[in-house]
Design goal:
alpha+beta; Arc Repressor Mutant, subunit A; Alpha-Beta Plaits; 2 domains; 5 helices; 4 strands
Length: 150
Amino acid sequence: MMEIDNIDRKILRELESDGRISNVELAHRVGLSASACLRRVQELERKEIIRGYRAIVDHTQLGVGAVIFVMVGLSGHSKKDAQAFEAAMDAASEVRECHDVTGAIEYLLRVEVADLKAYKSFHTDTLGTLPQVKSITSYINLGSSKDLRA
């Protein structure tokens, strides 16, 4: 883990808030000259603390009407089972996030679909056909009061 100072932390907070901020404005907000700020940002990128920049997309405008969190238990705990399941989730466009977790289940998914009919199709035709899947528990998201993902 790389040691970072308070100025680097300020830079990271500002970039997480607005990845398109100009270097001049970023430098002003963190109290550096533009050249010193740019060197720090480039160093954070070089060390892969900053791994990329993203657009925040309003998926509802693209037809996503339902977000479902899905807990998936696997029937086996082998590396082969996990790899096969993860490959299937990588191939499923509905799956926006796939997390390997501890506890009573093995995976937590964030699934985005047009509506509940589309989710039923994903549940039946994708998850329901995988031999590695033992249990599926679905939670329909009614809203998000905080979501800091970029």
